[in-house]
Specification:
The chain is mostly helical. The chain has a domain of 83 residues. The protein is built from 23 helices and no strands.
Length: 519
């Protein structure tokens, strides 16, 4: 039981391999023909069913692997992190060699890198400018929604994309394949630092690796989809791990470096700085603010200067791109669209869009208030949980709730001992694999947003009911359970020596040292 065995790893490998092979036919010439194609009779219909069958098999294998890891931990001999990471690597390999899944973002990455490679500023020049260099292959692969949109990513990621675009040239398939290398590096950072973070928090490192590295969310969206959230999240988790080891300047530097991939990582800079400030003497607050601010500014501004885009990359335009997306899976948009349909029916038109925009603004305001409350509550011992919950709230409360945004907070909560015991985290990782189709279309169109709103309402009611049920748990039962768990976690020690027979009494007192150790 200390090893993952063969059943679940082989089943998961079969699932990821089936999904990758079917995707080469399912996404044939959408937007490009992949460098290898698995021969499948039956055309699109069979490819579609095989793809989703592979995804389902992968999810079942992941759940089975987690069940086996829990049994191993309960037996007192938990599985090794190395074994779990090797299983995740085996499952990721077919997806890393397959076409881009669930979105066309990787083609936008390549186009924005080509813009920078030609010496232009991707924060001011959209991919449509590639026509001047006759790079029609790259431009035609970009979604029509983003051909006239400037880059919403940080300068470090655009510099990496620029190098890859220069190597690949007009070979789009090669460029997309190379673009997966930074994302695989991000997953490797998760494999190293999530278990390290779990050990610091006295959680199960193998369970943390199972949640953060082997989950369907990571494999399908970060590896298969190639989203740059993998690299951002890997650097962010590394920074948080250093923060808990009381290396705040290095932690702030890594989180700021993650923000040069995507800006949500700045939340890590803020919370780490607050934790550091709380443990210092009040009269030394200016040292924390000065040193932390200087390190963060040096990384952010230095990345802009080194990459040649200057200091203007942190502007309003970098936040405007998500606001142009209207998704039924975004709670605020689903609420606004449902209200508009109830009031005006199918003729809502521009009124519907205005209601959706207002709902998104209210959601962003609520997330901001929640962030202020988190800043008030955060301490070093709560940093992982606070930052993880805040990032998940930002993913759901933002203008576009793409499933891969959940990886920001899930990677942190995977190392939290309380979150590891939560069924909600597992449910989120499995359910997140199904809202988006293989080609990037959302499974639930905007006119049917009421369905998603009902799902969110049911989930909220179940969560509230579970919270109230836990609060009603009798204190004695909760204390006994906690004591039993703590006692099971302690290493077995030698039994206390019994006194000689001549000195025994009818009732022997318990040794003080043994009582302190059990507590």
């Amino acid at each position: 039981m200390t090893r993952p065995g063969w059943l679940w790893p082989c089943l998961g490998l079969a699932g990821s391999l089936t999904a990758a092979c079917a995707a080469t036919r399912l996404l044939e010439r959408r937007p490009i023909r992949w460098w290898w194609t698995f021969p499948l009779p039956g055309g699109h219909w069979l490819a579609w069913h095989l793809f989703w069958a592979g995804v389902i098999v992968l999810c079942v294998a992941w759940l089975g692997l987690g069940w086996r890891l829990r049994r191993a931990a309960a037996s007192g001999a938990p599985a090794s992190v190395r074994d779990v990471v090797l299983v995740g690597a085996a499952w990721a390999l077919p997806l890393a060699l397959g076409p881009a899944l669930f979105s066309l973002d990787m083609y936008s990455y390549l186009a924005q890198g080509a813009i920078m490679h030609h010496g232009l500023d991707p924060y001011r020049v959209a991919p449509v400018a590639l026509r001047h260099w006759h790079e029609t292959a790259v431009l035609n692969a970009v979604s029509t929604n983003w051909r006239h949109t400037t880059a919403p990513y940080g300068p470090l990621f655009l510099a990496l994309s620029s190098v890859i675009a220069g190597i690949a040239g007009s070979h789009v398939t090669l460029g997309v394949t190379l673009l997966r290398l930074p994302e695989l590096a991000g997953v490797a950072l998760l494999a190293v630092f999530v278990p390290r973070l779990a050990r610091t928090l006295r959680a199960d490192p193998a369970q943390a690796a199972w949640l953060a590295v082997c989950s369907p969310l990571t494999l399908l969206y970060l590896v298969g989809g190639g989203h740059n959230d993998a690299l951002m999240t890997g650097l962010l988790v590394a920074g948080v791990a250093l923060a808990l080891e009381r290396r705040p300047l290095a932690a702030i530097a890594l989180c700021a470096l993650a923000a040069t991939i995507k800006l949500p990582a700045l939340a890590g800079v803020a919370l780490i700085g607050i934790c550091w400030l709380r443990v210092q003497e009040p009269r030394h607050w200016w040292r924390v603010v000065g040193a932390g601010g200087a390190v963060c500014a040096a990384v952010l501004l230095g990345a802009g200067l080194v990459t040649g885009v200057g200091v203007h990359w942190i502007s309003g335009s970098i936040f405007s791109t998500p606001e142009t997306v209207r998704l039924a899976i975004t709670p605020a948009t689903a609420l606004g669209a449902t209200i508009a349909n109830i009031v005006h029916g199918s003729t809502a038109g521009s009124y519907a869009k205005s209601v959706e925009v207002d709902a998104v603004k209210i959601a962003i305001g609520l997330v901001a208030l929640f962030g202020v409350w988190i800043c008030w509550r955060v301490r070093y011992e709560r940093l992982v949980a606070c930052l993880g919950v805040l990032l998940i709230a930002a993913a759901f409360g933002g203008p576009a709730a793409w499933p891969w945004y959940l990886s920001w907070g899930v990677a942190l909560l995977a190392a939290d001992p309380r979150a590891q015991r939560s069924g909600w985290l597992v449910l989120m990782l499995v359910a997140g694999a199904f809202p988006v189709m293989a080609g990037g279309q959302v499974a639930t169109p905007l006119p049917q947003a009421a369905r998603m709103l009902v799902l969110y309402a049911v989930a909220a009611l179940v969560a509230v009911a579970g919270w109230r049920w836990r609060r009603r748990t009798p204190p004695t039962t909760a204390a006994a359970t906690a004591a039993a768990t703590a006692a099971a976690a302690l290493p077995p020690g030698p039994a206390p020596a019994r006194p000689p027979a001549a000195h025994r009494t009818h009732r022997e007192p318990q040794p003080v040292g043994h009582a302190e150790g059990a507590g």
